[in-house]
Amino acid sequence: MRLALLHAEFGRIEALVSALEAEGHHVHRYQDSRTLILQAARESFDLFLLEWGARGARQVLQDLRGGSGIHSSVIFFNCSNSESELADILGSGADDFITGPVGMRELVARAGAVMRRRNPGHYCRLNVLDMPPYRFDTSAKVLLVDGVPVALTEKEFELAVFLFRNLGRTLSRGHLLEAVWGSALLAVSRTVDTHISRIRRKLGLRPEVGFRLSAAYGNGYRLERVVEDWKVGHPSNGSGLARPGERTPAGKGRLGDAVRAS
């Protein structure tokens, strides 16, 4: 997961960062709340970890929950024991808090628990991701689209799975690079854009098959489910495609045909 960490002093933060990274998280550190807020406007994060004593920490929460469209989880740590202040941050949209001084294992465990609740798809242990007409076998790295095998490179497959597991979220290029390639250092290249283009073509991602993969200007990409007006009131086989023997609207053939032709 991609985490944004706002902290006051270095102190034990190095140990906390090491503990989080040991669990496979990508940690981005900030001591300046204004810098974090600016970054949050153009970069996507799964979780914001805000140290109670960090300057501007509560302002960060207000900005995140104040109509910014950012719905990532927020945890405060090293909190005071003030019941009224803790109730206030929970009422303002924080997902959890931990009174200080925090234990490393507890904070790592709490972060994992909050993210599992917010985005269970990331932690699903099933080897099959089934979103008709798409079926991903993550162990064999095989994709079937409307029952038709589609050849993807390893990175194309990983990127497609990551997008489907984050359905409805706007994901920044840096986030996608870290999740699939392990580093955001390639952000200056067109690696993500090139792979997105290939995935859109190979999977036939179009509104008429129920999904749209679109660019979010200046931010990244968003895969979302689409229900078109012509489908409403028409029984389907669950994939958004016509049942055998039914006619599809003009120009909207079966996805398998589109995939085979691509």
What is this entry, summarized?
With 262 residues, the protein is α/β, with parallel strands linked by helices. The protein has helices spanning 13-22, 33-42, 57-65, 83-91, 104-118, 154-165, 173-181, 191-203, 255-261, and strands at residues 2-6, 26-30, 47-51, 73-79, 96-99, 128-131, 134-137, 142-145, 148-150, 170-172, 211-216, 220-225.
Task: Lay out the secondary structure.
Elements: E1 2-6, H1 13-22, E2 26-30, H2 33-42, E3 47-51, H3 57-65, E4 73-79, H4 83-91, E5 96-99, H5 104-118, E6 128-131, E7 134-137, E8 142-145, E9 148-150, H6 154-165, E10 170-172, H7 173-181, H8 191-203, E11 211-216, E12 220-225, H9 255-261
Parallel strand pairs: 1-2, 1-3, 3-4, 4-5
Antiparallel strand pairs: 6-7, 7-8, 8-9, 10-12, 11-12
Helix pairs in contact: 1-5, 2-3, 6-7, 6-8
Second rung of CATH, namely the architecture of the largest domain: Orthogonal Bundle
- CATH topology value of the largest domain: Arc Repressor Mutant, subunit A
Structural class: alpha/beta
Strand order of the largest sheet: 2-1-3-4-5
Describe this structure in words.
The structure is a single chain. Helices cover 36% and strands 21% of the residues. The protein is of the alpha/beta class. The chain has 2 domains: 2-120, Response regulator (Rossmann fold, 3-Layer(aba) Sandwich); 128-261, Winged helix-like DNA-binding domain superfamily/Winged helix DNA-binding domain (Arc Repressor Mutant, subunit A). The chain is elongated, with a radius of gyration of 21 Å. It starts with a strand and ends with a helix.
